Amino acid sequence: FRRKDFSQRPFFLAPTAPKPDTHVNNYTATLGGPIVKDKWHFYTGYEFVDRDLSADRVITVTPANASRLGITLPSSGVIPAKQKVNFFIGKTDYQLNPENKLSARYFFFKNSSPFNIGGGQITTERATDFFDRMDSASVQLISSFGASRLNELRLQFARRHQSRIPSQGAATGSAINISGVANFGSPLDGTQSAGFDFSQKIWQVIDNFTWMRGRHSFKVGFDVQFVDDTRVNTLRQIYTFPSIDAYLAAKSGSNPRSYTSFLQDIGDPTVDYKSAFYALFIQDDFRISSTFKLLFGVRYDLFDVPEARPFAANPLSSKFKVDKNNFAPRVGFSWSLDKDSRTVLRASSGIMYEPPLLNFYEDAILRNGDPKSFTTTLSPTSAGAPAFPGTLSDLPPGFTRPTQSTVAMASDFSTQYTILTNVQLERALTSDLSVAVGYVNSIGRSMPVLVNTNLIPTGLTLGDGRPVYSTTVSAATRVNPSFNQTDTFLSAGESTYHALTVTVNKRMSHGFQMQATYTLAKAEDDAPLTGTYVVGSGDDRLSDPSDRSRDQGVTPFHQTHTFVVSALIAPRLDGGGVGAAILNNNQLGMIVQANSGLPFNIRSNQDLTR
Hints:
Elements: E1 24-36, E2 40-52, H1 63-69, E3 82-97, E4 100-113, E5 128-145, E6 149-166, E7 175-178, E8 182-185, E9 197-213, E10 216-232, E11 237-241, H2 244-252, E12 261-267, E13 270-287, E14 292-304, E15 327-336, E16 343-353, H3 358-366, E17 373-378, E18 404-409, E19 417-428, E20 433-452, E21 483-509, E22 512-525, E23 553-554, E24 561-569, H4 578-583, E25 588-595
Parallel strand pairs: 7-11, 18-21
Antiparallel strand pairs: 1-2, 2-3, 3-4, 4-5, 5-6, 6-9, 7-8, 9-10, 10-13, 11-12, 12-17, 13-14, 14-15, 15-16, 16-19, 19-20, 20-21, 21-22, 22-23, 22-24, 24-25
């Protein structure tokens, strides 16, 4: 449990606002035991989480600005976000015979989160209630063939369903953004806002076979997943104004086109697609000598991405590339440096491929330029630009649709991968105490970046050299003047991660076990992706689509310092008596963590490069 007094007052909360509630209630219960002794067992677990999330969602819109805009701010000064989540797990293990063990598991959770939006300039008018449910079932058979061969077969089915509806008191009409001031109006501000619905089903088969022969331990396996997605995205309507005065002029009718831009999605927002992921691996754990062990192998991944929805006017929509060059070798070793094996050097390096985010392909299918569904972004001077608060849906039949904006996958889009390297030196100080120093390096390549590839610079530049573009669509300002913006996913990003770790380990002895780890790290990349694709990301789009290096910086999840201590105390009193009866056969666990905060972006209220 946690209560208000346990939490610090949020930094950005107005001095006159009361400290928000941060209550958290977390209930857990487990039950397990034998159905048939030494043959058939069961386990069940339940958890319920009830928590207030308002403390990290402070509204920073000033009362004076809210008054001018006619917005009612909650007296608490925060988004009244809450969350209630139920978890359940059930598992059973059945020993069929000495060679075969069968296990089955079912897992379920259900999440209800009213007012599930961030704070800052976002007001409660934009709030949506988020619902999320997932359940999965799996069966696993472990079979041994003699003393040297083992097979592990697993079959799993999982499904998930998410949706969003307007919260109580949410506004109607269009969403309204006033740059640097406030975001209010209807919760139609993102592809996953009001009206969003998502359903996914996954079948998975995994098999691993191990064969121990002499000083070798061979392992080979495969993983097959079939993914079926169905989505209904939000049809967005967003007005962006440069200032409060401009908004009030549009609202009064004195200047109904005083906005900076208007964005609207039109057409059918539903999409369904199928994909499949395949993986094979083989490795050998080779004990070369009593002091040196070598591990090496290779993995191959094939990600069969969804089918494209071709549109003749957009060449990038014709076909999505399936990257077949995903071979990932790995190697590692463990080496005892002294005859007593008190000092051990461990190192490993390998390539890790990551499945592409299916949301990329979803957006490229939905917004390929085909009039079935498209997004248009208009300036006040664009042909057909509506007068506030109208929308394109209100315009009479026969209206010529404005130039569309599209989303596309680059024709050479490749699977992102990481070269991950670890080195660790560990020294045993006593029979139960050791200290280790390690270095971790991760080099990311082919990371996805969303870039507007349809822009042609006007020739003007800002003071730092950034090119200035134009909101007018023409052959002089667009590579393909049939479209306005062409947001293209490129596999061009790069990242680096460096970390130094120091760990002290104490094995269980004298009723006490402990591990303490300190990590000093730095994570950078030049591939920002918004929170639409990376949950929790504070990144925005590339600040300069012509030069990705301008966005080289720390990642959204960079933490410089992390310190964690975990301990387990199992007191033991010899002899009888009340003290021994109370203390013995009990365990007390403890975890303490301290870490740096995450990066915080400070944004301007203007798009100087247009």
